[in-house]
Each structure stands twice: as C-alpha cells, then as structure tokens.
Amino acid sequence: MKKLKKILFYFFLTLSALVFVYPFYWMVISSLAPENEIANLTLLPSDFTLSSYSQMIDKIPIGKAFFNSMLVASSITIGVLVFGSMIGYALSRLEFKGRDLIFYIIIFTMTLPFQITLIPQYIIMVKFGWIDTYLALIVPYFINALGIIMFRQYFKSLPQSLLDAARLDGCGELQIIFKILWPNSIPALVTIGIITFMASWNEVLWPLIVIRDESLMTMPQLVTLFAVGGRAESQLGVKLASAVMLALPIIIAYLFFQKYFIQSMASTGIKE
Amino acid sequence: MRKLLIKIFLLIVITVTLFSCSENNNYGNRVISYWSSNNSYEINYARFITNKWNEKNEIKVKSQPVPEGQSSEEVILAAVVGETTPDIYSNMWQGDVEAYAQAGILVPLDTLKGFMEFLYERCDSSVIEEIRSLDGHIYQIPWKINPIMQIYNEGIINELGLENAPATYSKFTEASQKFQKDSDGDGYVDKWFGYAEVQVTWWQRFFDFYPLYLAASGGASLVKGDKAVFNNKYAVDVFKFLRNLYAENYFSKERLSARQDPFLSSDIATRFTGPWEISHAENFKPDGFEYDFSPMPVPDNHSGPIYTYGDPKNIVIFKTCKYPETAWEFLKDILDDQGDLLLIEMTNQIPRRKNIFENPLYKNYFENNPKMRAFAKQADFVKGTDASPVLKEVFDLISQEYEACVVYGVKTPEQAVQDASDAVDLLFLK
Amino acid sequence: MMKNKRKILPYLLVSPYIIHFMLFVAFPVIFSIVLTFHKWNIIAPMEFTGFANYIRLFKDKTFLQSILNTLLFLIIHIPLQIVVALFLAEILNQKLKFKGFFRAAFFLPVIVSGVVVTILWQQLYGFDTGLLNRLLIKVGLAKIGWLTDPNIAMTSIAVMATWKNVGLYIVLFLVGLQTVPPHYYEAADLEGASKMQKFFKITLPMINPTIFMVVILSTIGGFSLFIEPYVMTGGGPLNSTISAVLYIYKQGFFYYHMGYSATLGLFFALIILTVVFVQKKFVERDT
Question: Which ipTM score applies to this complex?
Fold first, then answer.
C-alpha cells in the first residue's frame, strides 16, 4: 500500500515536471520536423530536417543578433559589476555627506515604475544620437540599483581588518575595491553577474524602442519582430527555430551553472 | 570641492554630447543621398539607376537601402528626429505624407520646374487629386503600387463547380457555405472559404475592410478634410457581408498567421492579398497547386469598374536636400516609360502610371509573367489613401469597431460604422 | 591635500550614479510631467495643450479597460501562482529522489526569455491544431478558444505567466520552508496532528513573510505585463488582453502620441505606487 502510494506520488511529480519540460521538447522537435508535420506532432516526427534553421538563417541575421546580444549583455554585466562595486563600496565603507540621501534615492528609484521614464529616456537617446547604436542598449543599464544595494550589503559583511591591512600596504581605494574586495566577494559577483546577464539577455521592450537597424538588433528583439511580423512567411517551423536559437544559449548556461542560477535568483526574487 | 564635482559632471556631459554629435552622417559635398526600399530586388534596382546617373553627372547620387527595422515608417521617423534623413526616399507610404508635409520637412514638388507637366503626363487627374495635400501643394510622386486582390485556389473553385472566384457578396457567401467542412470529424469546422487577419492592428484593414469599401463605393474616401465620410451604405454593406462570414464560421476567428500558411495547405480557398503573394506561393506551394487572382467581391447590385486599395509607395524629397532641382532631374530620369519598364522587370512591382496594361512597352513582361496581368489590369482602378495627418488613427478607430462588429458580432453594422464615424469626427475636434 | 583627496574620493566613486540618476531618472521624471501638458508627435514641435491629455485620459475607455485587464491578470495570476508554488514546494521539501532534477525542471521556464515562452504558448493555445485542444478532443471534451474567446484570453495569459514564473517562487518558498524549525512538526506529530492541520497551523503562519514577498514581487512584475499580450494577442480579442503597459506603448510608439502616452504612464505609475504602498503597509502591520 505504502509502495503504491509512493509510486503514485512519483508519477504525479513526473507528470507535473513534464508540464514544464514537454513544451520545450515539443518546440525543439517541431523546429526539426518537416513543416507539414508540425500541426499534428506530439512525440517524434517521421524525419528530422534542418530546413527550418537554414531558412531562418537566410531570412534574419540571427548570427549577428547573437553577437549583439552577447556584446550587449557582457558589456552591461561588466559595467554593473564595476560601477556597482564602486558605488556599493562608497556607500558601505566610506563616510561622506549625503551618503544616506543617495542610498534612499537608490531605494526610491527601485520602486519607480519604468512607465514614467520610458519616453523621456527615448528622447534622450534621440538627442544624443544614440538611436541605432550599441550605446543606447548598453549605457543606460550600467547603473543598476539592485546591483549597488547587493554590493553594499555584501561589502558591509566583510571584516574591517581586510581594509585596514590593504590601506597599510598603501593601496588606493580603487585597488582596494578590485584587488582586495573582489576576490573576497565571489558569491556576490557571481550572483549579480548572473542576474544582470540574464536580465539583459532577455530584455526586449527597450531594444524595440531604440533599435531599428536590423544589424544591431538583439536576439529577443529580432525573434519577437520575426515572430510577430510577417517575415516568417507563415512558416511555423522557422518561427520555432528562431525561438529555439533564442532559448538555447541561456539554457546551456543554465545546465552548466544550474545551482548558481537558482541561488542567484532566489537571493533576489527578481524575475526575468 | 563642490565646484570640482560640478566641473567633473559638466565635463562628462559635454564629452558625451560631443561624442554623440560628431557621429552625424556626412556624405561629402556634392552628393545626393537616396534611400530605397530594402528588399533585394529594389536594392539592385537602385544601384543600377544610380550608377547609370553617376556616369554622366557631376552631382552624384548615392543609394542605400532604408535601414532595416520594425517598419520603414518608423525608420524614417527616427531619421527625421535625428536629422539624418536622406535627400530622396522612394518607399514612402502615401498615408504618412500628410503628417510630414504639415511638419514642413518635405519639398513641395509642384514648385519645381516642369513637375506639374510631368505629373499630368504620368497620372490621371483623379490620382493627382488623391495625392494633393490639404494645403494644395504636392509633396509626393506616385511611384509604385501593390493592388489588393482576391487570390483563389483554382482546384477548390473547380471542385465547387464554379468557373471563377465569386465576384459578388451573395456568390461569395454561397461558395463559402458549400466549401465549409469539418474534414477530420472532430465536430469543428477546419476548412474555411476565406480568411482575413482578425487582429485590430490598423493596417490589417488594408486587406479586408478598406479594399472592399473601395470596391463597393467605386473608390470613395474615408475622410475629407476634417470630416469622416464613410458613414454610408457601402461601409455598412461591407461590415454586413464580413460579419455574416464570421457569424457562420465561413471565416476563421483564429489567427491563422500563427500557424502554417493556410492558403497553401488548402485550409482556406481564398484570401485578399497583393502581388507579393506570387513569389511566396511559387516558393512554398505543394505540387499541383494552382491559383489565380480576381477582383475584390462587390455588392450584388454593383455596376462599373471595381476599385481596390493599391498600397501606394511614393517618392519624396526631404527639405534637407541641398540640390532639389538636381534631385528632381534624377527622378525624372528614372520615372519615364523606360525607367518604369526597368522597375517592373527588376522588382516585379507595378508603376503607378496611366494605361500600364495597354502600353506596348510593357507587353512583353506581362506575357512572361501571366500572374501579374490581373494586377496590371487592376492598376487602372486603384485608390491610395486620403490626405490626412491622422490617418493611422482613422484606421485604428475603424478597426476597433470592425473587430466588435465583424469578428465578434457584438454590434450591428449600422451602429459600428456610425460609432467609428463619430469617433473619427471627435479626432478632429481636438 | 591628502585629506582633501579623501573627501572628494567618495563623491568620485558615486558620481556615475549621480550622472545616471540625473539623466535617466530625474530628468525623465520632470520631462514626463512637462510632456503631459503637451501634444507632441516627435516630428512637429511640441504644442501646449493644458490639461487636454488629462481630460482625455479620464474619458478613455480603452485605458480604463487596460487597467482593469491588468488587475484581472493580477487577481488570477497571484493566487494561482502562490497555490501552485506552495504546493510544489511542499512536495519538494520532503525526502525525495531526483529532487535536483525536479527543481531544475520547474525552474526551466524562469530563465528562458518571455518571447520564447509566448511563441511557444501561442502554439499550445491554438484553436484548431494547438496541443491543448488536441488533448481536449482526445479525452472527449469541447475545444476552448484559449486566445480567441474574449472571456478566456486573459486567463490563458495568466496561466501561461504562472507557468513561466512559478519555478522562481517554488525556490523562494523552499527557502522559506527550511526556516521552519523541525521541532515544531515533531511536537505536532506527538499531538497526532494531521498533515493538513500541520500545514495550516504551522507551515502557513511561519512562511507568511515569504508569501507577502511573493505577492509584492508578482504585483510589481504583473503590472509590467507587456510582452505576453504583445506577441500572443496584440491586445485582442475585443481589447480583452490589452494591458496598461501595452496600451501606453501603443499610444507612444505606434501612434506617436507622446504627450498622451506620458500622461498615461504617469497616472499608471501612481496606481502602481499606491498599490505597492498599501501592500507594504499591510505587510508591516501583519508582521
């Protein structure tokens, strides 16, 4: 009886896991199936073909978009780590006038809905001539309130002796941050890095607004426009192939760094 | 100390600003920049004509495809904002011209030498009235059109015992009824006679309501000046016709565009579309699939020619152009009969000029491309858009009512057309 | 000199933030407010229109509907999310084989771009050939117009959003559940409490803070609902899935009513701030 219950339990659990995994499986095999089989596909197509992928590559510069996404997400991540730790350090370890004020401003901006700032930010991009440049995709994201606050929290928890020793050795403040604090803050760097990278990889609203030039589009933007617009020419496999290409890099990263991903996300509760 | 901070801050701001300003496009001095549409045929065409021009002329024309983006309209808008507009742009949707004209960024072409003579030679007076802006000037040259027609699956039409695609509302409805099927027996219709995109996006109405309205009314306007003029029998009839098709499930309410092409898979027998469908069909059609084009269906008592929407793309010159006269010379060159022949041969698009089908110059092309003939014949009876700076909103408001009435049947056609018309009038009140 | 440098240094370190704040927060907020009093389509110069945008806002039925849609989304999405996440977290919190695998499976949709998820679900939700309807037909039920029935479409989107995010909340709840001291349960076992009783009497009160955090997080996330309706329905059918952000985006970047769009944005931001503020007060009072 107990055994039966256990089997049922695992059966149920597997079923619910399938609910989350099967759609991805379906997406991948559909993108590999001949176009006319997709509509009735459930488990395996009669034949595998890469034609959806080759058609997609013909239609949209997915390789370039991958490069763009990589460039943008990496630059943002580096920027957030560098600026975030500088500011987080100043806010946690240095005394100066207005420190608390800045801290509260940061907290406040986190609660500010982006709807208010969207249009003026777009206009700033226009006035700077940054529309259709990487700058528009990268620079506004260099400063990330959450990153700053997480660095601040983490640096606060490090022992003062670490800093004192470094100062005795004659380290400058920047050296302290990057040579002393960074090696002692790997978990914070990993967490903030993963969150930032993922969020920028998946960002789609802002690129939709500031990028019109196809050769500069990031993957989510390109795939969105491809799927929503008519460019897929009603070829379903092609659409799904583009979606697979968009999902793949993050899923691969996830498979390798699963533990960090889950921990990072759990520690902030932020989504996307 | 505070001063120092302010200085640093200012310095950064200034560098950033300078950096961004220095990026302005610079084509050098005696060059005219020309943006063409960005499909590969037109890119080649633009290269060809500019090379030809540049061999003989001192002021050069440099062609470039409009940067690919969400839509060319958005790209142009961004260029206007960033003051990086080209001198000539040849893919301007007619409906956008009025807004740009009112913003004062287009050259009034009627002020150029010999322009009006040229225009009268190329186009019918009705076309000239159609493209005239509200201030009386003309800011665009009618260039090419893609008329919306009814594509139909010949096999299915024959199976239904018909010789042609249905030409009137009642024949269309009759054929729809005959064709409707639940082929897999699951209790749900899965073969529909036709399909129109059900999304409310304003330009989707170019492929259902608008061409049907033009066909029924003989090319009537939607707005005149600042008044809605579509609250009439024709609009109501179109709404009634389509509403019935949805109510009887002769048209699918689902967005079929999210799945495979339903026309090529014979899940639908007809749809309203333009000549671009030819190359798509030739690429993807299954073996033995035959199709052809016919005019839009009209009300049963219709008489006279059958108009449709032509989706006109026109040429404009932006005021940033340093040599408008030279630009005009260049354009005159590519817009003569021979130039249009080149356009049609290189890009499979129909030039907007008089008597295209009768002109012996183009005869050869249509013999080689029989599918294009229907469009060439249709070309004498196309309408573009009305001159209005708020045309998108007009279409959007119509589209909202269209969805409520036609697709979901929650409003009567009379009420829906009335409401749309009232809403459009409100738009002009400010 | 030395002392001076030490004084300036912190400001130098935070200066990137200050610049960013000025450019991307302070200026936009002020500009936005100015914009609400103007009519502007970007090409032509701005035109002062007084309170016209505000008057229009209060008469705009579509905007009202977009807010109601967003609230409807939240009302379906949040409870569903909490129930499912808590349930699965409870299961995962036991001794289990392949625990890591199951957790990873539930978490998979969280990391994938919303664009992928929406493209995928558009196929699942298809009326004629969608997987879900094929399943319904197989078990002898009627097809459902997941995205074509105005009464159902928003629920469909909320279910999809739950599917996408629930993994994250499972993990958050797992963290919460592990903070419950085991001896509480042991004591309850001695008194012969049932599983249900233990859950409602011990677990639930103990993880209350996590639940509130989840509520606040998914409220903020839910208010920015955009890409799902943008890709799947375009806001239809009959505007039943147009979210406030989608409407604001359309007004601004589809029709170029910049002034009006800014007005909508400002107004909507105030609503969000109010809701989140009330929720926070609620939490503070309760804990």
Answer: 0.82
